[in-house]
Design brief:
The chain is an alpha/beta fold and 118 residues long. The protein has four helices and five strands; from the N terminus they run E-H-E-E-E-H-H-E-H. It has a single domain, classed as Rossmann fold, CATH 3.40.50.1450. Helices cover 29% and strands 20% of the residues. Strand 1, helix 1 and strand 2 form a beta-alpha-beta unit. The protein starts with a strand and ends in a 5-residue tail after the last helix.
Length: 118
Amino acid sequence: MKILYFGNPHLEEDNLAVKVCRKLEDEFKNHEFCYIKDTFELIDLDLNDAIILDVVLGIDNVRKMSEKEIKQAKIFSLHDFDLGFFLKLKKKNIKIIGIPSNYSEEKAIQEIKNLIPN
């Protein structure tokens, strides 16, 4: 299984998924972890059997999210080519796990472990 994660490791408000996944790699050695720096990298990736992990504003706990929730964003400019756009483009059924932006690493790791199959 491929686990894709996003975020800027240099920005405290955007690096939780990066920190969490780097720690989860040690426990889930049978999964391939891929850090995605730019959503354009998704174009060439095989997303079958993939899980996406990212920080999501406005949620209260770690949870599975539907593509519909992610795809609702509207595109108004080139800066709006986000994850939702690429999910529409790929037309894949991808598992998405959202992490609240205000979580601690430890709490996020514990809750994510329950959502990733061994």
